[in-house]
Specification:
Elements lengths: L1 H21 L10 H4 L16 H14 L7 E4 L1 H8 L26 E4 L8 E4 L30
Parallel strand pairs: 1-2
Antiparallel strand pairs: 1-3
């Protein structure tokens, strides 16, 4: 029973996160944020040799700000991409995004709250605003796991 009370909510929350990010809106599925998001304008990455993932994310933030949208507050990124950015080095093998006082809060890349999850594919990212104006998530009730401990003959019969 204790295993189900711990493991089941974890996997339900994982599926809920996947639906909030990538749900296609069909049938009982949520309409996810990624299908509704504006596409990244690739023309913002100049044809200068050496641009990387952190440059693309910075340009995506620029795209949001110049469109006069809500100020972005979060970045959702795959762990592979996150650590590729975190481990980028300069010509002297110095890490660009090394440990800092803010690293523990995961606001260490571009000043946004970073959500690292495998529910977004590598090479994809989502930048958005957690403002109440931008989106609101309502849960009718939190998940509850209830297991009957009574014997079958104690239940009413029809």
């Amino acid at each position: 029973m204790s295993y189900l009370q711990v493991a089941l909510p974890y996997y339900v929350d994982l599926e809920e996160e996947l639906q909030m990010l990538s749900g296609d809106g069909t049938s009982e599925f949520l309409h996810g944020l990624i299908p509704q998001a504006s596409a990244f304008n690739t023309s913002l990455t100049h044809a200068v040799a050496g641009w990387n993932t952190s440059d693309i994310i910075g340009r995506a933030i620029e795209q949001i700000l110049t469109a006069k949208e809500l100020v972005p507050t979060f970045l959702v990124i795959n762990p592979i991409d996150y650590y590729s950015i975190r481990l980028q080095k300069d010509a002297f093998w110095q890490v660009y995004f090394g440990r800092s006082a803010r690293a523990s809060r995961r606001q260490d890349l571009v000043g946004l709250n970073v959500v690292v999850t495998t529910n977004i594919s590598s090479g994809t990212f989502l930048i958005g605003s957690g403002s109440l104006i931008a989106a609101e998530i309502r849960d009718r009730m939190s998940m509850q796991v209830e297991i009957a401990t009574q014997h079958a003959s104690f239940f009413p019969r029809i």
